[in-house]
Amino acid sequence: MGMADAKQRYAVVTGANKGIGLETVKGLASNGIKVVLTARDVKRGYQAVEELKREFGFSDLVVFHQLDVTDPSSVASLVEFVKIKFGRLDILVNNAGISGFNTDGMVSVHIFFYTLSVLFLSILKSFLKNDLGFLFTPGFGCHPKINWKELPQTYEMAEKCLTTNYYGAKETTEAFIPLLQLSNLPMIVNVSSEAGLLKYISNEWARSVLDDTENLTEELIDEVLKEYMKDLDDGLLEKKGWPTYLSAYMVSKAAMNSYTRLLAYRHQKLCINCVCPGSVKTDINRNTGILSVENGAASVVRLALLPNGSPSGHFFTRQEVSSF
Q1: Where are the beta strands (DSSP E) in 2-160?
Q2: Which residues of 107-136 are buried (b: 16+ CB within 10 A; e: fewer)?
């Protein structure tokens, strides 16, 4: 096991070769934290690290390690790397996520949905009943006139979305808990979305299960997700009160939010929260968001750097505590 410096802090950021993940690495390193930048694509990961070293001189503070959160051997390899190199982990940022429509990559595609999430309250009626095509620009990789009702979400796409956004984050977290427990100030930040708020799930059974933190278990979250997948397969999403647009994405984030509360309830010494960074300008939405990437990542970095005794088990919309 590596000889950890008692004063030095160590972090892992998943899905970090671009967007909010990359900016989070930059923010943590700027605060003197040693960060493992992870990405599925080895070449892109190394390029991101080289770019940070060249532009900001983080020569000793940022290292790369490959990570595919859906691959248990990849997760185990990263945990072993951190164990040998640092001996413990102080901060875990679960940022990797996919949309459930695009199966091409685990970049920070959920940024695209932050643009939508900021609009959710004012367009809830439209969101539930009408065409959302007006929200799209070509920058999203979608036709500007696209009709959500015509956009297929296959069973395989939904399964991959849940596997990445919920199970991937959960398994990465559980693999790191023993190393986080060696920290004096262990922090977990789950990058989530307002799309996962329970008010967008009309299925009363699912909502009550996910909202009952005291009685919640991973097995119960699994049951909710299995029921969702069964109803998707049977074409019963609308009838059973599940979201019908951005469906798997929303359910995956609702599961992640509930798991965050469960983990905080179970591990009182860990500080674990989830955050929606807001509508962020990135290359994915061709800079149509409201916030800069720096502003978006600032909310994530702020939670990662909370002092001892800070609140745990909360959902933050940017820097404000919000309801689940």
Answers
A1: 10-13, 34-39, 62-66, 91-94
A2: bbbbbbbbbbbbebeeeeeebeeeebbebb
Q: Do the bridges between strand 315-317 and strand 320-322 make them parallel or antiparallel, or are there none, so unpaired?
A: antiparallel
CA-CA distance, 315 to 213, in Å (whole number)? 13
Establish if 263 belongs to a structural domain: yes
| Model pTM above 0.90 | no
Residue 3 belongs to a domain? no
Task: Give me the active site residues, please.
Answer: 249
CB 264 within 8 A of CB 312: yes
CATH code (residue 274): 3.40.50.720
Structural domains in the chain (count): 1
Name the one residue in this structure whose structure tokens are 């997700």. Answer: 225
Q: What is the pLDDT of residues 16-29, one digit of tens each?
A: 999 999 999 999 99
- CA torsion 60→35→289→132, rounded to 10°? 150
Over the chain, what is the mean pLDDT? Answer: 84
**244 located within any domain:** yes
Nearest to 247 by CA among 199, 195, 299, 313: 195
- Separation of alpha carbons 85 and 244, rounded Å: 45
Residue whose C-alpha is closest to residue 271's, from 141, 180, 210: 180
**Is 308 domain-assigned?**
yes
Q: Tell me which residue range forms the domain holding 32.
A: 10-322
CA dihedral over 12, 16, 21, 22, signed as positive or negative: positive
Q: Is 290 helix (H, G, I), strand (E, B) or coil?
A: coil
